[in-house]
Amino acid sequence: MAYDDRSIIETKEKKNEFESYIYDMRDKLSSQGILHNYIEPAKIQPFLQELAKGEEWLYGEGQNQGKQQKKVLDFCSALMKKRPRNSNL
Length: 89
Hints:
The structure is a single chain. It contains 3 helices and no strands. The protein is mainly alpha-helical. The protein has one domain. α1 packs antiparallel against α2 and α1 (2-29) packs parallel to α3 (69-80). The longest helix is centred in the N-terminal third of the chain and has 28 residues, at 2-29. The termini are far apart.
């Protein structure tokens, strides 16, 4: 029981972290964002599309992943690793 509760809390925390990451990166890559001028334009749009997919997952299928922590962690980690290569994001 305690393990299940801890797992649910950790999953919710990871989802919140992922949501913050999406909003933060979207803001930083916007035309007025602090990273916009440092990333090749051809790399920004595909990354923004990945962020949109992540957001769609988070508010769709991700809502039902309460106890499936590994799936949530894998999905979030995979997107967070897709940062544009010529940056220190």
